[in-house]
Amino acid sequence: MPVLKTVQNARNRMDSILLYAMIGLVVLGALCIMSAVNSLSWSNTIVRTHLVALPLGIMAFAVGWSFNYQVYDEQWKWLYSFILMLLVGVLLFGSYQRGSRSWFVFPFFSMQPSEICRVCTILVAAAFLTRRGRYIYDTSTLLWLGLLLAPIFGLIMLQPDFSSVVVTLPAIAVLLYCAGANLFYLGLGALFAGVAGFFTIAWTYLYLHPDLTQYGLGFVLNQLAHNGWYMFGFSLLIAMLGYGAWWFFKQLRILFPFFYFVLATLVVLAGLFGGIFVENHMKPHQRKRIETFLAPNSDPQGAGYNVLQAQIAMGSGGVLGKGLFSGTQSRLGFVPEKHTDFILAVVGEELGLWGMFLVLGLYLLILWRIVVIAYMASDRYGYLVCGGIFGMFFTYMLVNFGMLLGIVPVAGIPLPFISYGGSNLVASLWALGVVQSVYSHRLRA
Amino acid sequence: MAITKEVFNGRLKILLKAALIVGSVIALRLINIQVLHHQNYMQLAERNRTQILYQTAPRGRVFTADGVAIASNSPSFSLYYLGNTSSGTEYLNQLVTDIAPYIKLAPQTIRTGLETSGKTGKAMALVENLSTQSTVALQELQQYYPGIYLLEEAKRSYPYGTLASHLLGYIGSMDERQWRKRDINAGYRLASKIGKNGIEQKFEEQLKGKDGGVYLEVDYRGRVKRIIQDKKWAAGSDIYLTLNFTLQQVAEEALKNSKTGRGAAVALDPRNGAVLALASAPAYDPNLFVPYSDQETTNASKQINEYNLAIQGIYPPASTFKIITAAAALEETDLDVNRKVTCTGKYDSGPRVFKCWGVHGPVNFFDGMSNSCDVYFYALAASMGPAPIERMERKFMFGRPTGIDLPGEKAGNLYGPTRRARNKTYWFVGDTLNLSIGQGELLVTPIKLAQFAAALASRGNVYRPYYVDKIVSNQTGKEQKVGQTEILQRADLKPETYDLLYKALKHTVDNGTARRVKIKGLDVYAKTGTAQNPHGADHGWFMAFAGKEGEEPSIALAVFVEFGEGGSSAAGPIARAMLEAYFGLNSNAPSAEATNAGA
Questions:
Q1: Which end of chain A is less enclosed by CB atoms within 10 A, N or C?
Q2: Between A311, A329, A394, which is nearest B33 by CB?
């Protein structure tokens, strides 16, 4: 560990822009939750829970800020054990709600450990990458990281908590990218996700338009999902393409290791089989989400209903909005999950475009400050922690806005600070506290 | 610090830039949805949350010139229950016992209805078409029970039943295709009734009011949350016709009681071409269509006779046409009106012998007209040939529709040598003789003959008849003039010609076949006609125009009785009744003894 020269000037121990942006979002969120649940009969419970979670969150923020973040680096093994304990614990003692076992229910409150684990995972991964700094370019680093994180994701998928994975994976990818991982491997990862995603979406599209499977490309694609011979043929084709590319570059006297082409071929094939796996194991409601994303108006009363109603809510808000507590779409129950996953629809309806811009702007402000703080960090660990947390909030923002605007499929992910959800609020505030800690222990500028 | 900074320097900055780009894309999409498509989404949101219990606005009334409403509206009440989940059993029991006496439903049925509505929270119509007596009591109950709601709607009613039904038309429902074609801003609902015929159809836009309604706010399950707005309707514009109510009523009554009950009577004002009466029998009762159930409407439409004989029936004008022959002879030859022709009951044209309907002996022009002596007119036509007659036909626009603003008017048929020549067939002497007495291929509608009578009465104005005077808005009180005098063509004959024709027609009333319409205090000019019908009984015609003694004629009319046999016997009494009604004279007995004449 390098010797730290920290800034001891009390005035500058916290980044005020980040703080104000955070306070702004939290206040806005509290108002929107109150407005959103106003019409529900159990609104008191929700508001009370949120008001209890708020001081807890502030405490978590204070803890994150006041502790030297390097503690997480030093004690990363304990942190890792803590995560695994929580996740195993929830599988053993958690309560089963809405098809997943992801809640600890205590007499007076309940909590969702995967929210805390999200932040912890970033801290642990950052610590690991800091230690592997010298070998960051090696394949082994990636493999070791994979091995390290596999139990966490495995346990989360056992609950199952799909949305947690959706947010954490991109954060880890951002972390790797910032750590300076070999772009080729990152590219392979993206290639894998891309191929698997392409096949999943293409097959869902064919499922929606069965007439296309009768001939041509559609026919081949469809056979690929079900017919072993087609899979075999496709694998051969990809292998030959890989070999051909290597030979081609060799003739040009541009020498790439042969190993790269083998890897690329394998990744594409893994993508295909990953896609086939997803295709065959996708739950009906998950398929519906992709269908809705592909054709939002195909089923306005069914799966497309949620997104459509959320858009109606947002669009009807206009520039100035209908005012807090007076959005008809949310108050009369047309917008589903209005205080959690679709809270932005409530913001859009009641506060209008300026409200949406406010939320978007505050988020961008937070992202900007995190990046600025990352570059102020006194060590590599601080930089990486900021990078991972940046990735996490970026994903939250992208998915929440994108889902509402029809850019990404519905994923059921809350928007930190704005959505109702105590565990998420506490974890997110803690994460920002850690970022503030990085700031307070920065280099003398 | 800066251990490996050179390795990853800048990568996070790239990501920040990516975040900013994503942010701007989101911002643009937001502007697209919240600003550019705001109106659209606003409408969708409003449609989501509002349920409207519509109240059909009263259609504009239709008045005759003397201010009688012949199409009006009557109120119809429905009782709604706006589901109120908070209402307990006690409340419901009380409510059921209180409203049961006023609606014809078993208390158990009412209770079930109320409970269903309470459970689902949806608005529900308990009863429709309440009687007026019960509505007063229910209106009071409405004060005590906030859940119930009395809705008033306007229903079309035609107080005089069949009166002017062919002119008024009727109303009915649209099918979905027709509804989609309508202008979205005109406020039509699929359940709206539209005019289907006559004035109801032609002035649909003006007659239709703006429907009112109770706007309810409902949640996503249709449960009523509150009443947003109780919008009052706006009644449609009233239409004032030129019809004379008494005249129309008398004409229809007389037609109905005529020998066959089939026919038409049309009266025009010869001073401006306004329609004073337009009766067609058989008529129908447009009230049949008002009960808004589809089955009843279907049954009703099977029963009714939409055929408007006054403008769609075409028949030979028979002896009334002799006026044209006479006018042609007066105008184009130097006819000596006192020269006598001896009628022996038949006329030898050479190849064929033509018969007269009687033996009149020596007759001059006036006797020939008043007795409707065929032989006299055969002789006239034979000496001048068919061309002047056809020219005279064209002057009065025979063979052309009158142009009254009603759908389906028939033109009739012009008959003459040029028409024959155009059809490339021959013209025989016999045709000339047939033409002269209005038989053969010549065909006219009753309204055409009324137009002709009005042209004679006004000394040459061939009017386009009109029947709508003005439209008065019920909202702004603004008057819009619709109908106006339009002279299609002038039949400019020499004044002496008209004088002699008037004298002959007066002679017909005083001494001839039209003695039935001889009325003290009036100058009546008339001509009868009996159209030979090879398929059955002859048709009776009667055309007349009249004014107060010494004044210019103020009414011109044509009466037609299908299969009525005699023009004078069948159509004459109708014409007399109409004239008496128009001039306000009330004598039941015919002043002159009726003869069974006419030809």
A1: C
A2: A311
Q: Which two tokens stand for residue A48?
A: 């009370």
The model's confidence at residue B348, banded by pLDDT at 50, 70 and 90, is confident
Interface of B to A at Cβ within 8 Å reads 1, 3-4, 7-8, 11-13, 15-16, 19-20, 22-23, 25-27, 29-31, 33-35, 37-38, 40-42, 44-46, 48-49, 217-221, 225
Of B206, B222, B241, which residue is a domain's last? B241
Of these ranges, A25-34, A245-254, B127-136, the one predicted with the greatest mean pLDDT is: A25-34
Q: Does B7 contact A136 at a Cβ distance shorter than 8 Å?
A: yes
User: Which of A2, A180, A391 is nearest residue B8 as measured by Cβ atoms?
Assistant: A180
Find where tokens 């990486």 sit: A384
Amino acid at B178: Q
Whether residue B370 sits in one domain with residue B236: no
Q: Which residue of A has its CA nearest to B219?
A: A332
**Are B297 and B187 members of one domain?**
no
A297 confidence band (pLDDT: 50, 70, 90): low
Mean pLDDT is highest, among A40-54, A349-363, B155-169, for A349-363
Tell me if B115 is assigned to some domain. Answer: yes
- CA B273/CA B266 separation, integer angstroms: 12
Please give the pLDDT value at position A29: 93
Residue B77 belongs to domain with CATH number: 3.90.1310.10
Q: Are A364 and B11 an interchain contact pair (Cβ–Cβ within 8 Å)?
A: no
Looking at the structure, do residues B235 and B264 belong to the same domain, yes or no?
no
A433 CB contacts (<8 Å, ≥6 apart)? A60, A61, A62, A63, A64, A65, A66
Query: B314 and B210 share a domain?
Result: no
Q: How confident is the model at residue B589 (pLDDT cuts 50, 70, 90)?
A: very low
In this prediction, residue B594 carries a pLDDT of: 39
Report chain A's mean pLDDT, rounded to a whole number: 85
Whether residue A287 is predicted with pLDDT greater than 80 in this model: the reply is no
**Residue A32, both tokens:** 């929107």
Strand partners, B73: B156
- Helix, strand or coil for residue B30? helix
Identify all chain A residues contacting B7, using CB atoms and an 8 Å cutoff: 136, 180
Total domains in chain B come to: 2
Indicate which CATH number applies to the domain containing B523. Answer: 3.40.710.10
CA distance A401 to A285: 21
- Contact residues, chain B, for A334 at CB < 8 Å: 45, 48-49, 219-220
Q: According to the model, what pLDDT value does residue B595 have?
A: 37
Structure tokens at A218: 């559609």
Q: d(Cα B547, Cα B535) in Å, to the nearest integer?
A: 38
Please list every residue in chain B whose beta carbon sits closer than 8 Å to the beta carbon of residue A379: 1, 3
Alpha carbon distance B116, B108 (integer Å) = 12
The shortest CB-CB distance from B27 to any of A357, A371, A387 is to A357
Tell me the two tokens of residue B44: 């969708």
How confident is the model over A37-48, as pLDDT tens digits?
A: 888 878 888 888
Cβ contact B8–A348 (<8 Å): no
User: Which of B15, B19, B31 has the CB atom closest to A364's CB atom?
Assistant: B19
Q: Same domain, yes or no, for B331 and B391?
A: yes
User: Which residue is closest to A405 within chain B, CA to CA?
Assistant: B29
Tell me if B421 is assigned to some domain: yes
- Residues whose CB falls within 8 Å of the CB of residue A252, separated by 6 or more in sequence, listed in order: none
Contact (CB, 8 A) for B329 and B335: yes
Could you tell me the residue ranges of all domains in chain A? 10-195+284-440
Cross-chain Cβ contact B12/A360 below 8 Å: no
Tell me if B527 is assigned to some domain: yes
Of the residues B199, B218, B241, which one is the last residue of a structural domain?
A: B241
Pair (B237, B270) in one structural domain: no
- Per the structure, the complete domain to which residue B231 belongs is given by 51-241
Which of chain B's residues have a Cβ under 8 Å away from the Cβ of A326?
A: none
Q: Are residues B334 and B360 in the same domain?
A: yes
Mean pLDDT of A237-247: 88
CA A312/CA A406 separation, integer angstroms: 12
Task: Let me know if residue B539 belongs to a domain.
Answer: yes
Residue B20 has its nearest CB partner, among A2, A352, A364, at A364
